[in-house]
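Appendix B, example 12.
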Amino acid sequence: QVQLVESGGGLVQAGGSLRLSCAASGRSFSSYTMGWFRQAPGKEREFVAVVNWSGSSTDYADSVKGRFTISRENAKNTVSLQMNSLKPEDTAVYYCAAGRISWTGSYYLKNGNYNYWGQGTQVTVSS
């Protein structure tokens, strides 16, 4: 069992930056693939970024490539999402997720493959 708690959301102007953090409790954090997803009002939850168990591999949605960076510290049971050059279309509730997901086949893109979710943190980008 893994519990996830996100923090770091808030209101920021377009072009600004935010850093989201996800603190995990429970056993075997380092064995989980960790992902960030987001959901805007009236839209489906969508993949944002993912990092493998060791931190050696990452992947991003095309809409955030070059602006967002995902990282993890297994010694501290945390995963972070650094968000730069924010745009109004980045406005959403951001969720941290954990799952034992194979890196091959890109199964990490699908939210249904994650076993544990945080409660979400709101990010609002004003124009």
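The two ends are 40 Å apart (CA to CA). Residues 18 and 83 are 5 Å apart (CA to CA).
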